[in-house]
Amino acid sequence: xxxxxxxxxxxxxxxxxxxxxxxxxxxxxxxxxxxxxxxxxxxxxxxxxxxxxxxxxxxxxxxxxxxxxxxxxxxxxxxxxxxxxxxxxxxxxxxxxxxxxxxxxxxxxxxxxxxxxxxxxxxxxxxxxxxxxxxxxxxxxxxxxxxxxxxxxxxxxxxxxxxxxxxxxxxxxxxxxxxxxxxxxxxxxxxxxxxxxxxxxxxxxxxxxxxxxxxxxxxxxxxxxxxxxxxxxxxxxxxxxxxxxxxxxxxx
Amino acid sequence: xxxxxxxxxxxxxxxxxxxxxxxxxxxxxxxxxxxxxxxxxxxxxxxxxxxxxxxxxxxxxxxxxxxxxxxxxxxxxxxxxxxxxxxxxxxxxxxxxxxxxxxxxxxxxxxxxxxxxxxxxxxxxxxxxxxxxxxxxxxxxxxxxxxxx
Lengths: 252, 149
Known about the structure:
The complex is a heterodimer of chains A (252) and B (149).
Chain A: E1 20-26, H1 30-43, E2 48-53, H2 60-64, E3 70-73, H3 80-94, E4 98-101, H4 113-121, E5 127-132, H5 142-160, E6 172-175, H6 176-184, H7 192-201, E7 206-211, H8 225-244
Parallel strand pairs in A: 1-2, 1-4, 2-3, 5-7
Antiparallel strand pairs in A: 4-6, 5-6
Helix pairs in contact in A: 3-6, 5-7, 5-8, 7-8
Chain B: H1 2-31, H2 37-55, H3 57-66, H4 72-120, H5 123-132
């Protein structure tokens, strides 16, 4: 399961990542965005960064401007899915080879970016998912979150006949073909579990890579306790509906 | 007996007037381009049906009995509810479509603005970035990465 594949690779870890886009959706993340961007620059200086400012009301864009390669300001809040999809569309039009999503709240440690990207760049898989080790005290409502993750895992395992341990993780790297697919097909709100199902059904090769995640560095989660019920219902319904659709045959 | 007939005629007159006014109101909205023809078709059809059945109340009653409805006005209520449901589902579909298009437009607008800004960014601006964050620029050069993960 854990295949970093950096060792023994002909180019080794010196292999640069030209034409890789790091997509950072950010909604009111002025507090921690700068430090996240600096960290990414240190970890992977050879990747382009696009910050998608999802209609923030704070200084997110001006914080990002000097540190990111590109800052896309959406005219109003689209939701995380709409913001990330903007990144996919941008990556597609710019012809990037691969893209990786790193959330603007600092939950996704940039030190894992290379590990996630490598199998995609090597052409081993189309999608890598950074799965978190849920450790104690990492989340404010760890039980609820874990319960949700379990439900999705069971559901996805049943439907896809394979286990995705953490399908709520947005820490994912995508190949060019996956980018092109997602530029056209990506759910607007709470997109993660649903898009994994869509990707798997379209025939993309997916690999999970264990990573540790951090507590969000600032701002507030889009998923409040109040919305979590809606989240569950919406995602379960969306996954079931996805199963009713004819799979989009992208790959032979 | 006579009174009852007068009452029936009165309510028929009211419903005829009402449905004709509704029909004219819809047509007027279309004429002023406040309502697109696509949407008005259902409303016009509904108004015409109402006018028709106000005039030929006997046909409406016979239709109700044919359908096995003892009390004809309840057919009216049923028809209204079904029509309302169908039209709200239609609107939900339309709103979903519009939302998808608005999202797409917002995304493309954001991307275009950034591309334009990147194209027209002066060398002066580039220098500011250089000073502020030397690591932010050399993406095209493919430099860096001296530290191996």
